[in-house]
Amino acid sequence: MAHRARWICLCLLLAALSTAAADWRAELPAAKRLGVGEFTWFGLRLYTAQLWTAGPVHDWNQPFALELLYHRSLSKGTLVQATLEEMRRLNGGSITSQQRTAWTHAIEQAFVDVRPGMRITGLYLPGQGCRFYVDGKLSREIADPVFARAFFAIWLDPRARDTQLRQRLLGLAGNDRGT
């Protein structure tokens, strides 16, 4: 009987470890890369972005993942500031001071200082919010659908700052699709 109890505990432990170690792909197992593009700033290549969807097109009503592979070192503070500025630019005065405070806190907990080769992936969950993974490990879950939409709009909204990157991510700029 003790042997059986140990076996059950070992199985539960392994299941818990595999769940904790699972990256975003476990949440979106049918995902295929819809598009890919580079983001540069004043000629410096900052990151490569990839959009992963389960369907043939991007749909705000379906989960998707946006993966950023960094080519330069950037501080967490720089990432947080740039993110909030773009969210504010796209949403104008519709972000309340309470949302800004909550969103700043959430992003500060989700993001890290990055260096070349690191990946941050955002998983969009319609109606629920989003999850952030740093190098495949869950960093933070944000249960705020308004935040999630505002965050991913930085890359996917028609008013995105880098319209060419948006087109590439959506698979609309030539042959950007891949698996």
Automatic annotation (TrEMBL):
Keywords: Signal. This is Periplasmic protein. The keyword Signal applies. It comes from Pseudomonas putida S13.1.2. Residues 58-171 form the Chalcone isomerase domain. It holds the Pfam family Chalcone_3. Residues 1-21 form the signal peptide. InterPro entries: Chalcone_isomerase.
